[in-house]
Amino acid sequence: MYNDLTIGWNLVEGVVALSAGIVAGSISLIAFGLDSGVEVSTSLVLAWRLAQERRGGCMASYDRRATRLIAACFAVLAIYVSYEAIAQLVEQRAPDVSVPGIVLAAASVIVMPLLARAKKRLGPVLGSQAVVSESRQTELCAWLSAVVLVGLGLNAALGWWWADPVAALAVAGFATFETIRTWRADSLEDTCCS
User: Fold this and answer.
1) How far, in Å, are 14, 29, 34, 87, 185 from residue 152 at the CA level?
2) Cα angle vertex 119, ends 116, 125, to 5°?
3) Which of 42, 44, 68, 135 places its Cα 20 to 30 Å from the Cα of 11?
4) pTM (predicted TM-score)
5) For the purposes of burial, counting CB atoms within 10 Å of the CB of 148, is it exposed (0-12), middle (13-18) or buried (19 or more)?
6) How far, CA to CA in Å, does 146 sit from each of 40, 55, 87?
């Protein structure tokens, strides 16, 4: 259920953020939209992992593979956003103000922490490190929403164009941290029946 809600929310969030980001020339909004795509990808990986659970047997190899795929999604996001944000800073490309982006980021600041908490409680119940890792992606989305909101707000209120790529670099930093943490994550004790 939480996975379906996450996928639905992030599909809408991704389309709106990417569209608004492209129109405004905002790398932080584009990064936010891409993060939504990563979130959908990790939710699909999680759905695959949970489908394996229904088949029974040892889940350790499936869980490890799912966790590594989630880490790879974080890595791709970090690399792309870092490159684009640095290019925007170097070229001094000022984004336009994006009211739809500000509204979307504010809504995500409210919705995403609720979904993350629900998933975090579910992971140990299922004995799945993949579910726990996926809940971290949802937490990351909540933090990213706040960072993007600050960057967009500073650009809109004070004309600080550089706040947008700096916010995008913060997104990349969060994604890099999660890449490392997720890649190194240990399996939960009861992932595999002994």
Assistant:
1) 16, 8, 16, 18, 33
2) 150
3) 68
4) 0.77
5) buried
6) 19, 39, 23
For residue 165, how many C-alpha atoms fall within 13 Å in the half-sphere facing its CB? 18
User: CA 78, 181, 6, 173 torsion: positive or negative?
Assistant: negative
Task: Indicate the CATH number for domain 2-185.
Answer: 1.20.1510.10
Q: CA torsion, points 33, 35, 36, 40, in degrees to nearest 10? A: 140
Rounded distance, CA 23 to CA 44, Å?
28
Alpha-helical regions (H) of the chain: 2-24, 27-55, 60-91, 99-126, 129-158, 163-183
- Report the alpha-carbon distance of residue 94 to residue 88 in Å, rounded: 8
The span from the CA of 69 to the CA of 80, in Å, is 17
Give Cα 37 to chain centroid, integer Å.
8
Q: Which of 33, 146, 38, 166 is nearest to 95 (CA)?
A: 166
Give the integer Cα–Cα distance in Å for 106 and 150: 10
